[in-house]
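ARCHIVE CARD
SHELF: 3
SLOT: left
DATA:
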Amino acid sequence: MQVALFIPCYIDQFYPQVGIATLQLLEKLGCDVSFPLEQTCCGQPMANSGFASLSKGCDANFVENFSGFDYIVAPSGSCVLHVKEHLQDAAHPEKAANIRKNVYELTEFLTDVLKVEKLQARFPFKVGLHNSCHGQRGLHLSSMTETMTPSFSKPEQLLNMVTDIRLSKPKRNDECCGFGGTFCVFEEAVSVKMGKDRVAEHDDNEVDYISGGDTSCLMHLEGILKRQGSKIKTIHIAEILNSSL
């Protein structure tokens, strides 16, 4: 199958190793991966701040770059959800609709499309799993405690295939870390307090790493950890799933 790799702008600029790990992992699993070179921001920052009309150029560019692929995969639940729910192109409405239908977050693609049952990966560390809001509540990558439905987690399902990993969860397993995109800029104090609460619960579990499917959330937590002088590190789930035996 032909897969187009969608790498969000903040990953491209600050965490390129996440994009590389995603590419290598998909190729290991037999995908024919392409990386459209003219891709840019998906437009989520503008839309989240109330300026959706300013993202039309991003939409048109996204459609131009990602049309014609069987699947589009990204290591970011928030950007994927934005594309799924908001991508529009007046000049090419059918192409935009097809993209919205075929864009997937990485763990969603691995479990639902590739139906991965085993991985040749090893990560001998204790890892605290963070559920990002967009992935959990928007893409339904994991169950929500308030719905009282059977428990499931696509990221956890994949991490359990990794040799020697020790997984842990915070007490409030599906609570927001406080990043929220532009929220962390406009409501800095609230955002930081929420992040500190998340970090404290992982710290209590004595984890080596905090991992998840959204680098944006991990970036927020990483900043708090560094300011606290913590030894805990953050790592995207793609880097763990791509780790070598």
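SLOT: right
DATA:
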Amino acid sequence: MTIVRFDVLSQVIELGSFTKAADELSMTQSAVSHAVASLETEWGVPLLIRDRKKGISLTEIGYKTYPHIREILNRMESIQQEIAFTTNLEKGAIRIGTFASASSCLLPKLLAKFQKKHPKIEFTFYEGTYEEITEWLQSGIIDIGFVVKGKTNIEFDLVPLIQDKMVVALPPGHRFNEKRIVEMRELEKEPFIMPTGMYQSHVEELFEEAKIKPTIRFEVHDCTTIANMVQEGLGVTIGPELFLKTQQNVEIATLQQTSFREVALACSNLSEASPAVKEFLTVAENTFLEPVG
């Protein structure tokens, strides 16, 4: 059946391995290879590039057809969920794209509330950057994703969750630790650790608005590495409170120049989403009506 072969192909692409796909599907590796090969033979085009060194990747036609394959699989999942919800025998799966601070600070509370109502729904999580989550939503790899409003030009249906305040992170014993509020101009001469990852643009906008240039000592991509460097006294930084408040031995001060990043859940097309996804978004909206503690 073509739907089965679509599912096999999707698992190979998402896991990047015939062996991993076989384990996930409880099939032999030869059966997985045969399913993909038979689909390629039926269509008369190669869908995957198999390279021992680089692994599995999509051909040009594979890249063009895969979003349509995922859409078919998503529609089949929606049909199954509609039947299950109607007969009160809930089943199905939700694939969620998330970034680090959302995974640690938002997702657990949301999952706990959702699974009390719908314990049979299964979840798969994909952690990545803003850009990766956007790509996964576009291609149908995930059903919904945590995003920051304004960081993508793609039109998604959004459910706003929280406003995450940008704060100053300081090492223990820093001279600003006694200050409740720090002005941007006070940071101009401080050794600064500039994030090059997901919230770099937020930080740069703050310095531009204050019309000052930071004294950048380090430029670092990984959020946890930045926090560890601050902890060791290598500099100060600016970042989202949601993440920084979870880091040990890092002091936090409020910026006088208030700035927020708005975290939301995105869905490529809410009207066509499965019942489980719609219910998840409803629960999410209700969960974060109150401030996150």
